[in-house]
Design goal:
Elements (H helix, E strand, L loop, with lengths): L19 E10 L4 E4 L6 E4 L7 H7 L7 E6 L13 E5 L4 H5 L10 E5 L5 E9 L3 E5 L9 E11 L10
Antiparallel strand pairs: 1-2, 1-3, 1-9, 4-9, 5-8, 6-7, 7-8
Amino acid sequence: MPESLTPAFPAEARIGPGCRVTLHFSLELADGSVVDSNFEGTPGTFTMGDGSLLPGFEAVLEGLRVDDEADVLLPAEKAFGEVNKGNVQVLPRERFAALLANSTDPVQPGTVLSFTDAGGFEIPGVVRSIDDATLVVDFNHPLAGRDIRFKARILSVVPADVQVMEVK
């Protein structure tokens, strides 16, 4: 957007419910392994409370303003949650006969399969083990049970009561 068309918002605008936030962020495991980052790329934009971020990540951002940075190690329960043993299902192997017979892309432990839930929504499941009779499939988020270091640098905060027109 040309400089003359860039709307000016007060620098003191703080992140709160309904604010449109643009930021760079990274997610790292406690050992420093980067899981996801956009610091080297295009920043992300979301609206606080729209479900784009988990509540634990939004809580870290609450009250920050442009140029503020966050660097927080979130415990698993504040990040992607604890591992729920009820989300690990033992399924009959015959249900997957066609997939298991596929020699070009064999199903093996670690394979992510797509399932449809009762509401018609697609959910991923990770194959944990296969034996003669069953497949054990884990429907927990892959980062469940892991502490996550969340880093963010706030680039823009648009207050909830400001309407922004996009110029194309």
